[in-house]
Amino acid sequence: MKQVYQLSKNEKEELQKNISHFLKKKDNILFAYLHGSFLVGPFHDIDIAIFLKPLKLNKASLLRYELMLETKLQEQFHFPFDVRILSSSPLAFRFSVIKNGILLFSKDESKRTDFESLSFVKYHDFHFYLKRYLGDSFGIHV
Questions:
Q1: What is the percentage of the chain residues whose pLDDT exceeds 70?
Q2: Pick from 18, 23, 48, 77: most CB atoms within 10 A?
């Protein structure tokens, strides 16, 4: 069973600031979000979503990068982390992070706003067809 962590609002704010500072130093990361249970109460891990500079990496290399960054964050802050690269993540995940997460920092506002806008447009286009499919196929009206 996973350990549950509980921090005060001030402790969370301080940790958030320190995580942001730590990630900002990484040259390949253009912007990052904090999301998940850490934002709302007790948590099992700290969820981070990052957007990388364009890199020619295959899926295995991207996974290794996520795991390497998780390890470095855990060593630095002594909490478990879950890191995901936004550009290789499913559309619904990207939408959820943008909508419900907190932006930690952005080194390139133009790229970030383009990414957010495109993700919202694609998600809403997709969501329309998903609702239609669920209704027609299963009688589920969302």
A1: 87
A2: 48
